[in-house]
Specification:
Blueprint (H helix, E strand, L loop, with lengths): L1 H12 L8 H19 L5 H17 L18 H13 L3 H19 L9 H17 L13 H15 L4 H16 L5 H18 L7 H30 L10 H9 L3 H16 L4 H23 L6 H26 L2 H5 L4 H26 L17 H34 L5 H9 L6 E8 L3 H5 L2 H10 L1 E7 L7 H9 L3 E4 L4 H11 L6 E4 H4 L1 H5 L1
Parallel strand pairs: 1-2, 1-3
Antiparallel strand pairs: 3-4
Helix pairs in contact: 2-5, 2-17, 3-4, 3-20, 4-5, 5-7, 6-16, 6-17, 7-8, 7-9, 7-16, 8-9, 8-10, 9-10, 13-14, 13-16, 14-16, 18-20
Length: 549
């Protein structure tokens, strides 16, 4: 969308310094402010190490997709849309945390820039100010993961919004509209398993746009062929990925795999009491106003209602915002039903009862809803202007001076709030970076470095952080940095006697101690005659005194 927009404007107007407008300058400032922070950022989120960063590392080092024998990849059914983009990026720029994060940031910024295509008058400051404010509000509802991670819950709604914007922008050029729909939905469909929901939204809007298209050269039969061809081509990458997973991994199942058998087995493990508890917790979390996604749903409805009031009641203008309000709420309802089905049918009982990832998953639909509000709002606001002919709009194109002042002060206020939100987001990511030394990823990478050769060596990580060990976070981080198929983590070793302690160590090639674990250090002095500090130790070194005896 971004490339086509630039080419289209180049052909029409030429690209010169004089043509750089407020929109370009604003996005350039946004990009330049966050880029240094993201380039210095380090991976922190659990899922980076369990899959999203790990798969990029695997693609780079192996130059191939994972197969049945790639045991280091635990989530083999996850599509690799954004991972492939990051892989190509790091091939040219170099591999490290900041480069991968920056690669995804470029994709996000392209989607945000594409959204501007919905604005009718690109020189209208107020409509762009509304759009840009909504874009910066996205960051608040994306706070569960932020932009300094490779998770795709933010990518999904932005790709969807970019696709919707492209359909709207090229609604009078059917071939170009179909081409853009195929390109964007093809990528969207292989970003994550639940991206099918977002793909259906885009294809639904494409279908409505084609049906409403009026041209004698496009009879019903020709439209039907275009719709069928576009939808088939759009779904092809997603279906090919499912075929690839089935052919490559067969009956080997992984978490969140789309499989009737997997869903049946997980559902059968849940008793009616457990299902009832999941539903109750889901509903309670949904209606609790302290929940960020719920705040987002309320905000979306308030924004629609306030805008409808200002345009329809105060200004006495007809508006499409009523349709927008109904459409967005229907989409949100269906998405939440889908989330509940996921917790009941496809998520392990322990995670389902804890509503694991609820805020992160729900944030996607909130961001989509806010983006759709922005689309409806900027069109409605532009339609409410006194002068509808864009070519005749000037600084005097207002019904009176009061309306002009409202336009100016509202635009300045919205931009001021947007800047504050951007600075807040940047400061939040900088704070995470400043506290990186206290994190498990730092403790491990500081000792091991980032290994780039896949190995079958066996490693044991010793940590005093029981929570992080029990959640397997230490293990996944270790697998990522050591780049090893066999990595275990232990915290509780106090019940081991001498023989058991020695047997435990002898099972591994190396032992990695990442913090001050008093029990392990005491047992090492007593049984191995070694003073152990933070670091990596070869098993032969640790057991040398035992072998000599």
């Amino acid at each position: 969308m971004l490339v086509s927009f630039i080419i289209d404007n180049w052909r029409k107007n030429g690209i010169t310094i004089k043509k750089i407008n407020m929109i370009t300058i604003t996005f350039l400032g946004y990009f330049m402010l966050l880029t240094p922070t993201l380039m210095r950022s380090r991976l922190l989120h659990y899922d980076n190490f369990s899959h999203w960063a790990l798969i990029v590392k695997y693609l780079l080092t192996q130059q191939a997709l994972p197969d049945f024998n790639s045991t280091i990849i635990g989530f083999s059914s996850y599509p690799i849309g954004t991972s492939l983009w990051c892989y190509y990026f790091v091939n040219f720029v170099g591999f490290n945390d900041g480069v991968m994060i920056f690669a995804q940031f470029c994709l996000l910024m392209a989607c945000l820039y594409a959204m501007v295509a919905v604005i009718k008058d690109k020189n209208n400051v107020l409509t762009f100010a509304v759009m840009f404010l909504v874009m910066t509000v996205f960051n608040y509802f994306n706070i569960a993961i932020r932009m300094n991670n490779l998770l795709v819950d933010y990518v999904l709604p932005l790709l969807t919004l970019a696709a919707i914007a492209s359909i709207f922008f090229y609604r009078k050029n059917v071939y170009f509209m179909a081409t853009m729909t195929i390109c964007l939905t093809s990528v969207l469909g292989i970003v994550k398993n639940n991206s099918l929901f977002f793909t259906m939204i885009v294809l639904g809007y494409f279908l409505l746009t084609i049906i409403k298209y009026r041209d004698k050269k496009w009879p019903l039969g020709k439209k039907a062929l275009l719709i069928l061809g576009t939808m088939t081509a759009s779904m092809a990458p997603y279906l090919l990925w499912l075929w690839h997973v089935h052919q490559t991994f067969g009956q080997q199942l992984s978490k969140h795999e789309i499989s009737v058998t997997a869903y049946h087995d997980i559902y059968e493990a849940k008793t009616p009491e457990i299902i009832s508890a999941i539903v109750q917790k889901f509903w309670h979390h949904l209606i609790t106003l302290s929940t960020i996604p719920t705040q987002g749903i309320v905000l979306i409805n308030v924004l629609f209602i306030v805008t409808i009031y200002l345009i329809h009641v105060v200004s006495h203008q007809k508006t499409i915002l009523f349709k927008g309000l109904i459409s967005v709420n229907i989409i949100i309802i269906f998405y939440y039903i889908g989330m509940l089905m996921m917790f009941v049918f496809s998520m392990p009982t322990e995670e389902a009862l804890a509503l694991a990832g609820f805020d992160r998953y729900a944030a996607s639909i909130v961001i989509l809803g806010l983006g759709m509000y922005a689309f409806f709002a900027v069109r409605a606001i532009d339609h409410a202007f006194y002068e509808q002919d864009i070519t005749r709009r000037t600084i005097r194109s207002f019904i009176n001076v009061k309306q002009k002042y409202i336009y100016q002060y509202a635009s300045i206020t919205l931009f001021f709030i947007s800047v504050l939100l951007i600075l807040s987001e940047n400061n939040g990511m900088s704070y995470n970076l400043n506290t990186y030394r206290e994190s498990v990823p730092y403790k491990i990478s500081h000792i091991t470095g980032n290994h780039m050769v896949l190995t079958n060596k066996k490693y044991l990580i010793i940590s005093a952080d029981k929570t992080q060990v029990n959640s397997y976070f230490v293990q996944y981080v270790g697998k990522y940095y050591l780049y090893a198929n066999n990595v275990d983590a232990r915290e509780d070793i106090s019940q081991l006697n001498r023989t058991q302690f020695i047997d435990l160590i002898s099972k591994y090639d190396s032992i990695l101690v990442i913090d001050d674990h008093y029990t392990f250090q005491a047992m090492s002095r007593k049984y191995l005659h070694r003073n152990i500090k933070e670091g990596m130790y070869a098993t032969n070194y640790l057991l040398k005194s035992v072998y000599n005896n």
